[in-house]
Amino acid sequence: MEIAFYLAAIVAVAATARVISCANAVHALLYLIVSLLSVAIVFYTLGAPFAAALEVIVYAGAIMVLFVFVIMMLNLNHETVARERSWLAAKVWIGPGVLGVVLLGVLAVALASGGSMGNVDSTPLMAERIGMTMFGPYVLIVELAAFVLLAALVVAAHLGRDDRDVAEEKRIAAARGRRHPGGEQ
Amino acid sequence: MFGFSTETLIDFALTAFETIAILLAVVIAAALLIWVERRLLGVWQDRYGPNRVGPFGILQVAADMIKIFFKEDWIPPFADKAVFVIAPGIIMFTTLMAFAVVPFTETIGVVDLNIGVLFVLAMSSLGVYSVILAGWSSDNKYALLGGMRTAAQMISYEVFMGLSLLGVVLLAGSFDMRAIVESQAGMWNVIPQFPAFVIFFIAGIAEIHRAPFDLPEAEQELTAGYHTEYSGMKFGMFFVGEYLGIVLISCLTTVLFFGGWLGPILPGFVWFALKAGFFICFFVLLRAATVRPRYDQLMAFGWKILLPIALVNVAITGAVVVAMA
């Protein structure tokens, strides 16, 4: 299992790097999907199969599909790829690069000092335990998250509603009523 | 570390053999469906169907396969080549992977995953990419429209499929497919979970976009939808992927709602094959007997009818399970 963990971790890092450096937006999204899938395998090797399955279903299978859906409709072509490439010039990398190196340094120090960042439980984390934790001590947070999601849903439904459709349907119905069925028109 | 004992080697060989046998059986079943579907459609539409090649036309499968292998495999010059080539492989891969957790009998089955149901849902949600990416990479307006329809349809119906399975999971108390079958020893899930069964089956048809929910490839509006630009074996993979989907949904319906291999007198595998075969024929009958709804009707039906029923079903099942405990 250890080999699987390291392989998946390497794939995740490499794919994520390509997400940032790829000039074609759809290809970048595909790398992001690969990255999420490898994170799911990392979860699985750490003994959290439930989290792994949810990672695939929710992130890779639902959220990323919506991303691809939107990007697909933007009509990207060779011009956008070229423009993206020009944005990814060498000097753009300096700022994020420095920040990334700082974080890497912190991580290296933490790992070198005995890895006191919490241990991974050796028992597999199954659905029952997750459910009991979520709907036991953390039920308030679950409910709050539900509130936020419901609010988002209501807002989206309100913004997405098109009053013209209703008016148009009424007009068509009225026109149908007037016209003689089976006539020349 | 590498000191394998003979027993582990034999175990490994047996597992590998079983896996390959299941893989072959599933793919052959899917290929035979090419003939089964056309013959059955013939029966229901009062005509013969393919009856020239071999006895009852059963070699039609071989003829079709030979034809499709020798067709020119053309990639449009304006397509995004890498994505265009990967897309048909994804649907084959995800559907075949989902078969890994299906328990065919007490002993036959690739793996007993304790998150079996979730694994199937995960694979089916990844299958969406095949169609979306095919539609996008073809750089063709009909293909793109087909891909967009699929994205919306499959994401929506995945929700209802997942919700309908929750009732079954609640009754069995496990995500493990084998445990779910064993929990049906007294009574098949289809009786206490009848609404869930109907929702699952409808969502299953929408997931593999078969008629009557084949709007992503509606010929009259979109020529051939997302696979308009595909030819040769790449088209063949979409084609076989669809048949694999039929076999998968039929097997899942059998396992989750109709007691899998359970049944009197006959051996388990025969029962499984009979039940799954019945649902496969039902898929074909649906194609012969129903008309295609409009796209907005499809989405409205899902969100306004299936979703509330699925939620009520989960709530009632949960209440009953808690009350019985």
UniProtKB/TrEMBL annotation, chain A:
According to its UniProt record, the EC number is 7.1.1.-
Checking Gene3D superfamilies in the record gives: NADH-ubiquinone/plastoquinone oxidoreductase chain 6, subunit NuoJ (1.20.120.1200)
Name where it's found.
Answer: Cell membrane
- GO molecular function ontology, one term from the record: quinone binding
| InterPro entries associated with the record | NADH_UbQ/plastoQ_OxRdtase_su6, Nuo/plastoQ_OxRdtase_6_NuoJ
Quickly give the catalysed reaction. Answer: a quinone + NADH + 5 H(+)(in) = a quinol + NAD(+) + 4 H(+)(out)
* Superkingdom of the source species: Bacteria
Name the Pfam families for this protein. Oxidored_q3 (PF00499)
**What top-tier enzyme class does this entry carry?**
translocase
Where it mainly occurs, coarsely classed, is membrane
User: Which regions span the lipid bilayer?
Assistant: 29-46, 53-73, 93-114, 135-159
Q: Please state the span of the N-terminal signal peptide per the UniProt entry.
A: none
Q: Single GO cellular component annotation?
A: plasma membrane
Keywords tagged on the record: Cell membrane, Membrane, NAD, Oxidoreductase, Quinone, Translocase, Transmembrane, Transmembrane helix
What is the membrane topology listed in the Swiss-Prot or TrEMBL record? Multi-pass membrane protein
- Describe the family membership recorded for this protein in Swiss-Prot or TrEMBL: Belongs to the complex I subunit 6 family.
Question: What does the record note on quaternary structure?
Answer: Composed of 13 different subunits. Subunits NuoA, H, J, K, L, M, N constitute the membrane sector of the complex.
| Role, per record | NDH-1 shuttles electrons from NADH, via FMN and iron-sulfur (Fe-S) centers, to quinones in the respiratory chain. Couples the redox reaction to proton translocation (for every two electrons transferred, four hydrogen ions are translocated across the cytoplasmic membrane), and thus conserves the redox energy in a proton gradient.
Q: What is this protein called?
A: NADH-quinone oxidoreductase subunit J
Give the source species.
Salinisphaera shabanensis E1L3A
Give the taxonomic lineage as stored in the record: Bacteria, Pseudomonadati, Pseudomonadota, Gammaproteobacteria, Salinisphaerales
TrEMBL record, chain B:
Keyword NAD assigned:
yes
Location in the cell: Cell membrane; Membrane
Any one GO molecular function term = NADH dehydrogenase activity
Q: Supply the EC number(s).
A: 7.1.1.-
Keyword flag Aminoacyl-tRNA synthetase? no
> Transmembrane ranges?
12-33, 82-103, 115-136, 157-175, 187-206, 243-263, 269-289, 301-324
The way it spans or sits in the membrane comes to: Multi-pass membrane protein
* HAMAP family in alphabetical order: NDH1_NuoH (MF_01350)
Summarize the subunit comment.
Answer: NDH-1 is composed of 14 different subunits. Subunits NuoA, H, J, K, L, M, N constitute the membrane sector of the complex.
Q: Which family does it belong to?
A: Belongs to the complex I subunit 1 family.
The name this protein carries in UniProt is NADH-quinone oxidoreductase subunit H
Biological source species: Salinisphaera shabanensis E1L3A
